[in-house]
Every structure is written in structure tokens, then in C-alpha cells.
Amino acid sequence: MKINKTKVLEQLNQLKLALANRDIIEHSNHFAFLGDKIAAYNDDIALSVPTNINICGAVPAAELIKLLNKLKTDEIDLEIEGGEMLFQSGKMKGGIKFDPECKLPLEELGQMKKWRSVPKDFLQAVKTCLFSASKDMSKPKLTCVHVLENNVESSDSFRMTRVVIQDAIAFEMLLPAANAQHLVKYDMEKYCKTDGWVHFKTKENLIFSGRIYLEQYPDLTPFFEIEEPTEIQFPKSLLESLERAEVFGKADIDIDSEIAVKIEDKKITVRGQNDIGWSEESMKISYSGNPIEFKIHPEQFRDVLTRTRVVHIDKGCSRIFFEADGFSHLLALT
What we know:
- The protein is an alpha+beta fold.
- The chain has three domains: 2-109, Roll (DNA Polymerase III, Chain A, domain 2); 116-222, DNA Polymerase III, Chain A, domain 2 (Roll); 225-332, DNA Polymerase III, subunit A, domain 2 (DNA Polymerase III, Chain A, domain 2).
- It has six helices and 24 strands.
- The N and C termini lie far apart (63 Å).
- The mean pLDDT is 91.
């Protein structure tokens, strides 16, 4: 059969997020060709895309992508013969080991039925909450973004974020943030649920399947109640200072980025620092009181500042609270 190299590479690259680094589960670092679709699975997430390459079996992912990238012609002859996936591109011929029996446990994903429309503001709400999810695996439910009806929320016990979306989600979800940070990269249109998994698909029928936790999430509502708050208004120039500070606020993993903010008498200071350098800038502010310091992800802080420049401090200066329409963010102060 003839295949289009560019189209196939585009499909395979869409699946790379679901490949395991090591073949702990057999074929979890392979692409699975399943007749009408190509899939990848790493026990946490699975991805699939439709295809017209009507073959069934598994092929090593890294080697397949490398070989396709080296082929010079866009139209390629592909055949399965003698346990190999064979290619011919012009005068060049090659083959990769092909297992006709895919051993990925894709049956775990269940039968995907009753697809519902994803609320338009859902994925942005999930992205906003990613940065407040814990990374401490000893408390697994706090490593998740919690979705219940119209509320999307997260907390690591020091930070809490809640976004209220317009249309309710049909069932409760506990989405591991490590998986959800990949989910928000796609433009998802539909979603459904099977036992232990939630599934999303795009207009082009790319399907993202992610494991969900089945634990009970704590009620965050009481923590958002601030006693005798003091109001502070941040200056308009804070957004520009944030952009300069976050040059040095980037960590190796973007979700771990942070900048430091200090509020003291008549002044607010924003500082970004990493192994390469640092940036610090101070601005005037109308505040008199005890010094307040906190750290926050720069993208999350930018999101906050585009919603509101008003912040509230609780009576004991132990919590700082941002609130706008449908958005709440709470920080424990250092």
C-alpha cells in the first residue's frame, strides 16, 4: 500500500505524549496499528488517531519516527511481511520489526459511549487550576484537578484555585495534573467516561484517554471565607514587571516555575531568579502593614492580574485572596 509520509508523521507525533520511556508494559513504547486507528498507551494516558493504514500490530515508536524522517520522498510503499514493516522510498528500502499481536491492554479503556459536548470554558479552567495541584504523591488526590458540576478546582494545601464554568460537567472527575497538563494542549470537543477513565476527543477524532482517581476530594469552600479582610489594589504596571521577572522564573519543568512577590510599606517588589540570572523591580503601592511575601507561578499570576488587580489579606496576614467573576485563588503566606 502507499502512504503519505508527511501525514503519517503528523499523526504519530500527536501520539508521542502517550509513549512510555521504557517498555515496562509490553508495547508501551510502540505505536499500535489497529486497523482504523493508531494508538499509544503508557498506563496513565492513551491517545489514538484515525488512519486509513489498514494493518494490525505494534511497531517500535522511536525507530519508526526516525526512519520516516529520513525518507526523501513523500509517497512511500509500505508492506507487512515476515514479521517486519517494510518501506520503499525511491531506491531506498528498509524494515522495522513488526509484532502482529498488539499486547497493550487497550480493553481497559472500555466502550466509549454517550459523548457530551465539552463546555467552552472547561479546558481553560483546568489549565488555570494546574499550578495549584500538589506534586506530593503521598497525597494522591491533591495531585489532581477536581471537577464537580460547575466547579473546577485544585489545592496543594498551601494554594487553592477554583474556577466556576458556565455549563456543568456531567460527572465528577479527579484528573491527575500530570495528565491534565497534556490534555489542555488539545482543542477538545466531546467527552465521556468509562470505568476508571475519562475520554476527550477533537473534531478530527483524536481521542485522549486519562486515568481518573476515585477518591473523595476535600471541600475547599470553607477555606475561601476570609475574616475581616484588608483590601489592596495592585498597580497597572505590575503586569509589565511580571513579564520581565518571569524571564528568570522559568524552571526546567514549566509547571514548576515561580516568582517571588513582596508587599511592604508603600511598595511591592517582584523578583524572578534561576541558575542563569535574576530580575527584580519595585513599584509604589497604597499599603501600610506587616510585610507580606508569597511565591506564585508567573502564568497563573498573569491570569489572576487579567481578572482582577484587587487582593484581600485576612486579619492575621496568613492568607492572601484573589477573587473575580467565577474565579477564586487563595495563597498561604510565607
